[in-house]
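Case study: 3-isopropylmalate dehydrogenase.
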Amino acid sequence: MMSVCSRSPLKSCAQGQRHRGARNSLWSRSSSSSSSSSSRRSLTACAAMKVTLLPGDGIGPEIMDVAVDVLNTIATKHDLTFDFTTKLVGGAAIDEHGCPLPDDTLDSCKASDSVLLAAIGGYKWDSLPSNDKPERGLLNLRAGLGAFANLRPAVVLPQLADASTLKPEVVSGVDIMVVRELTGGIYFGEPKGFGVSDKPGMEGSRTGYNTDVYCEKEIERLARVGYAVARKRGSKVCSVDKANVLEVSQLWREVAQRVRDEEFPDIELSHMYVDNAAMQLVRNPKQFDTMITGNIFGDILSDEASMICGSIGMLPSASIGEDGPGLFEPIHGSAPDIAGQDISNPLAMILSAAMMLRYDLNQEAAADQIEKAVEKTLDDGYRTVDLMSEGMKQVGCREMGDMVLERL
Ligand SMILES: NC(=O)C1=CN([C@@H]2O[C@H](COP(=O)(O)OP(=O)(O)OC[C@H]3O[C@@H](n4cnc5c(N)ncnc54)[C@H](O)[C@@H]3O)[C@@H](O)[C@H]2O)C=CC1
Ligand SMILES: CC(C)CC(=O)C(=O)O
Ligand SMILES: [Mg+2]
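Here is what the predicted structure looks like once written out:
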């Protein structure tokens, strides 16, 4: 059975012994499996794995609770020890400390082997100035950890081929890895702000502006991750940009092509404009293997890809840099519209914990076991409301978590 995110592109460390910089060398390995020497080494008992937990806002705390239960259960089965520290981020941190990313939170994350985040944001904080919003806390966390590459696997599990709004024959077998640049582009570019227009005919009208900017080094390092990831998959990469209009995309395309030509000649590379990519994802998603793209395009395309898989509540992600702990989070937000009702889907959160075990903590077997338990739960017909279809058994967030725990 295909596992949700089993084709690990990167591995870094044994339990409690982070190997700084190890990811880079491992990116170029041609294969990874649970019998690799690094995985075997990880099975020997060693120090506790320090993990900072960031439940955040909205549905964040309820899905985090479930994921922590899963991690605690898997720890007993694999003789692992977690040292969890829970910290505030986003709206919860604003309410308590007046800022969305307190130093104490970032310091804890940096001192950890890995970071697990649920989601941030909510209506309550929507009218704050941009730099004070929960979302800025998340962006600064990603930047603070140097987590520039965001891996978002969009895999259609056979159990959920009919859960998508698209036809089963269109989505069955889809297995896409979106590699999104995460610490640059328009979410970070300067100048940004509000002003007054001097455009002819619009003089005096308020303006809002942002800057989409990438330097060559940012594109190069993201492209390298994308190609290395692709090597462990179908060796086929589609780089998505808007080079027919944007200078920043023209540079993106040129650099992506150069890195491929100079360092990854075995990779089949194509380029696609983002508007076409959005359309092609719905028309024929199976044409894609690995996509590399900038921050905003990857944000949007991965939400679109999630619906190919049945629900945004299914997609986990790993955000990684050259060094330091990775950040693992579902791709969805805090879903304030359903928060506090115990109806959210915790599977993306659980699968993010599995990605953390595999990518950051080198616990391949434990990650496999969690993913299999998720698939078995779906096999047995349990569905949260976002995935619900005729003949299935509807469960809430907590109960879905319990079903996964029973199958671990
Ligand atoms: N990484 C993060 O923490 C992110 C935070 N946000 C923030 O989240 C807040 C809400 O943003 P939206 O645009 O509504 O995006 P969202 O992803 O929170 O929700 C979009 C839709 O999907 C549903 N949904 C999301 N996750 C679900 C789950 N696990 N189970 C079932 N249904 C789920 C929601 O109920 C909603 O109808 C905003 O404040 C936004 O800035 C948005 C995206 C990512
Ligand atoms: C703060 C946002 C950029 C979060 C988001 O939508 C995402 O990372 O998917
Ligand atoms: Mg998003």
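For the exam, be able to explain this: The domain at 153-312 is CATH 3.40.718.10 (Isopropylmalate Dehydrogenase).
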